[in-house]
From TrEMBL, chain A:
Keyword Cell division applies: no
Gene3D superfamilies associated with the record: P-loop containing nucleotide triphosphate hydrolases
Record's GO cellular component terms: membrane protein complex; plasma membrane
Region (Disordered): 1-31
Protein name: ABC transporter ATP-binding protein
GO molecular function, one term: ATP binding
Residue ranges constituting the ABC transporter domain according to the UniProt record: 37-271
Keywords: ATP-binding, Nucleotide-binding, Transport
Source taxonomy: Bacteria, Bacillati, Actinomycetota, Actinomycetes, Kitasatosporales
Pfam families the record matches: ABC_tran (PF00005)
Biased composition (Low complexity): 10-31
ATP-binding among keywords: yes
Source taxon at top rank: Bacteria
UniProtKB/TrEMBL annotation, chain B:
The name this protein goes by in its record: FtsX-like permease family protein
UniProt feature coiled coil, ranges: none
Region span, Disordered: 72-113
Domain of life: Bacteria
Annotated ranges, domain ABC3 transporter permease C-terminal: 312-428
Membrane-spanning intervals of the chain: 25-46, 307-331, 352-382, 402-425, 446-468, 474-500, 521-543, 814-838, 867-892, 919-942
InterPro entries the record matches: ABC3_permease_C (IPR003838), Membrane_comp_ABC_pdt (IPR038766)
Membrane topology: Multi-pass membrane protein
PANTHER family per UniProt: BLL1001 PROTEIN (PTHR30287:SF2), MEMBRANE COMPONENT OF PREDICTED ABC SUPERFAMILY METABOLITE UPTAKE TRANSPORTER (PTHR30287)
GO cellular component: plasma membrane
Amino acid sequence: MSSDEKQENGAGRPAAAPTGEATPAAADTADASRPVLELRAVSRVHGSGIASVHALRSMNLAVMPGELVAVMGPSGSGKSTLLTIAGGLDVPSSGEVLIEGTALGGLSRAGQAKLRRSSVGYVFQDYNLIPALTAAENIALPRELDGVSVRTARTEARAALAEIGLTEVADRFPDEMSGGQQQRVAIARALVGDRRLVLADEPTGALDSATGEAVLGLLRRRCDAGAAAVMVTHEPRFAAWADRVVFLRDGSVVDESSSPAPESLLDGEGV
Amino acid sequence: MEFLNTWRLALRIARRDALRAKGRSILVIAMIALPIIGVTAIDISFRSSQLTTEEQIDRAMGAADAHMFPGAPVPLLQDPEDPTQWTTADEADGETAESGTDADPEAEQPNDEQAARDIAALFPGAELVVEHGWYGAEVTTAGGLAAIHLREWDLDDPLTGGSATLREGRAPREQHEAAATTAFLEVAGLAVGDTVAVRGFDGEFTLTGSYELPGDLDTEQLTVLPGTGVVDTLAAEPGAEEYLSYARYFVTSDTPVDWDAVQKANERGWIVDSRAVRLDPPPRDEVPYFAAGHGWSGGGGSAPLGVVLVLALVILEICLLAGPAFAVGARRSRRMLGLMGANGADRRHVRAVMLAGGALLGLAAAVIGLLLGFAAALLAWNWLEESAGSRFGDLTVNPLELLAICALGVGTGLLAALLPALAASRSPILESLTGRRGVRRTGRELPIAGGLFFVLGTAVAVLGALFVSNAMVVVAGVVVAQLGLVATTPVLVGLFGRVGRFLPLSGRLAVRDAVRNRSRTAPAVAAVLAAVSGAVAVATVVASTNAENAAAYRATVPSGGVVISSDRPGDLPAATESALRTLPVTELATIGRLADTGELCHLLNAPAECAEPVVQLPAAAVCDREAFETGFDAARAEDPELTVAEYDPACVEDWWVKTPTWSPVSVAGPELLRVMEIDDPDAAAALERDEAVVYDERQVHEDGTLRLAPLTREEQDREQEPRPEDVAALPATVGKEADYGARPGEVLVTAAWAEANGYRVVDEAVVVATDRDPTDAEVQALREALSSGDGSPGSGSTALTLHVEEGHTSDSQLVLLILGLFATVVTLGAAGIATGLAQADSEADLATLSAVGAPPRVRRTLSGLQCGVIALMGVVLGSLAGLVPGAAIRLAGHQEMHELWRTDWYGGPETEPQLFLEIPWGTILQLVFVVPLLAAVVAALMTRSTPAVNRREQ
């Protein structure tokens, strides 16, 4: 990617890439017509009896390769629960979650962990990186956990860092990096190896707007290259980077829009 | 490969995490390293103290090829490697001496030089070197005389080899020169360059140097050159006791003294310690001594079970203490572990990270412990050698053992991290990421199993104490019960929580927090429980033993009284003067002994022809020892409860009675009874009438007299009856013992009676009554006067002994104090760690408390109470738990002693042993009241009263 492209991507919302436009490498490894993530009638109830809370109600969602989906909604609407269930960190009370066609419910804990290593990347609002590991080691972590040799994992990590233009922080520990750098390293880690699903929970929440834009630009580019991403956000201008915005309230999808303009999102927040 | 990758990653994370949390890491390393330091230092010191065979030989015979000594005038069989083990060939054959040879094996082998030369001639090319010496030679010191070992030997002779090491100056080269051991110089207050004289030998010796015997550093020895004639002169003295002189025979040879040569010497009744044989011993089956069934049959020794148990308990204690520290680490790293989970780490990855932390810190502790242990061994080297009384060999390091110690450190670290690792790996990722925490329910399996173990262990300990009488069974039961109790701690902590409702806010919060978070409270409480119960158990044993010893203690004279006695006549007048000068004396009484009137008969080791008075017992009071031993054994086989007194009262012996002197007949007046505070008017009146007082009524004949007859030792050995005209009879009164259990003597007669009956009275002791307990300064002044002398005749004699009656004394209070301190330190450590963990957990609660208007001190109060609650739970449960094993161990000891009393009529206790069980209230009260309070105050003081402004965690 040229520096001009980087500038363009970092400065403003690019035209939405056609859904399913994957890099040759991604196209080789995945079926472009199959959703990377699919939620089928997923419900999640916390507690029981009078104290029970419905975090998600029979939710359906499919995220295709190359698609960036933004999830918006008021506090308590089930946004974070959606992400944790999608990544197998939480178990739905009913329904089914499929990642690249594999149902999470049929996997053991170890199997789910393996799936996360190979297919899913998480990006949180902050505290994304393991303090005891350098940037390169953080990126190499899922690969090393997966049994890939240290040398190979590090090479891949450095390549990922080069791709996001952060080779200079390879040997820095998280507390030696800025918040934006940390988030970009987290995104690089989320997609290292063959992983093609990024679940991002307010990745820009702790960043200033310029840095947030840069982080979103990176996420967008990774999706344009064939990855799929689900991003929870409160910020309409960040949601504008998405191909699709899903509005949640009380655990249910109340609206969904494609390629939204920021102004329309602002209107839709009150839905 | 994947396993290796996992562990490589885990070790990397753990290493960096340990470096980031330096305080916690140092704490854990210190806890694990402390026992490693001790074990390493002990291992290196022990290994180094074990001499090689060559070193042992060098110390025993210097550079000689053999050392030989006479055994018996009959053929002998000896152990080639330990020549102190030998037997006669006839005895080995199971024959009597008479059947194998005409010689009597009991007879002493002629120990003369010519016989030694004849034996040395058996060894080809051998040369005999003889060392002469005298034990107990009286040598002048800075303050008087000292009885020491005197040698005639040339220390410059290469033959001395490794048997002596010159420390200062040089070896004597002239006849008027001498060298002394450093131990003697120190005791005698002498230095190189001073002069000494040997009593009984004309002339003085200048000390040219000091040396030490590496094998016996405490030996007080003086060496003069051979040919000085000191030994011959001392032997020629009137009344010289020949057995004090000796000759040692060394052999140097061009050819080694081999096993054949040794056996030839054995044939002639001599024993040979040969360098060549010791270095290359013959096969066991070629040694007649072993073939005859003597000697150690081999087989490896095993580490005592007790050591293993103690080690296991120490490791358990470390794990319990270090475990919460790892748990703190896991809690603080919760987000990191959650992130790992979000990135695909499964349980084994999280476990590996935690365990890697344990392994790394354990390894660091092991390495540091090894290095510090090595340094400690080197620092303590000299002190240990001097305490042991012999020099160690070369520094010996056994790599395998050090590796095992290292493994112990790593293993301890892994064990300590195991439970936190399991807990962390089971923690839901989402909970770790969000920082949410619920109340952990502990499983029921472990407490139930622990309860069963506790019941089982207690049963084994108590039943073992009652029926098996084996301390090891009791200890094993105690260990099992302790482990069980540790496992039940979560349940016990839960029971404790019920008191919460009665407490004020902070206390209620602290108790409920501890109970609701048992996974972090229980290990800390268990650590305190284990340490306190151990301390209370030992304290119970120590206090009970002390009470038993106090009850069994028998004073010799009233408290504060003093007995000065001397083996040598003439010492006492000056000593009495010294006592009058230095002590608050109210009255004195002299005790004498009866001696023959012949020349030199007044000496303690009187010539054989001197007679001494012997009590002639009535026929009914004479014990036929031989008949008794066989008959009584048979009678007890039928009736195990039968006592000696029931079987034959004449054979009852009271071994435990205390008297100021040991003579069978003492010479004293009624003033001795006053000085010893014995209110016995009848005895006093008898002494006034110059009659006898006896303390064993069996000695009194039917006509009410005591009968004494003079017999030489030889006559006594032959059990010769005295001539009737030599037997003196005098009226006897049976005296009363003192209230404190002592007797003034076995038999008392007066000086007037002794003189009238042809005995000489030799002063033996003076008993001093005081109006109060002498102060330390007064006793020291008296000791000084007695040991260094004041120039008056007889003063400064080493023959003088001093006994100051202080009643029962013991250092049990110090032991109890140390136990209390140990338990306090462990309690503070464990409670402190758990409080740190609780604080890490409670930040949100504290913030809430602040938000609802709680004053800042609540933070400190809560922290202090959290620490205090954990300490209190641990010490209360530990104190209760410690009393059981303490009582069981005491009970086992009592049963053992009771069994000894019941079955061993000769060596066992005289009266039926009573069970002494003393609860160490002082230690328990200190632990229950002071320690939790201290823990609470320390924790409160070390807590900020306001929340810290934390930078964002990264």
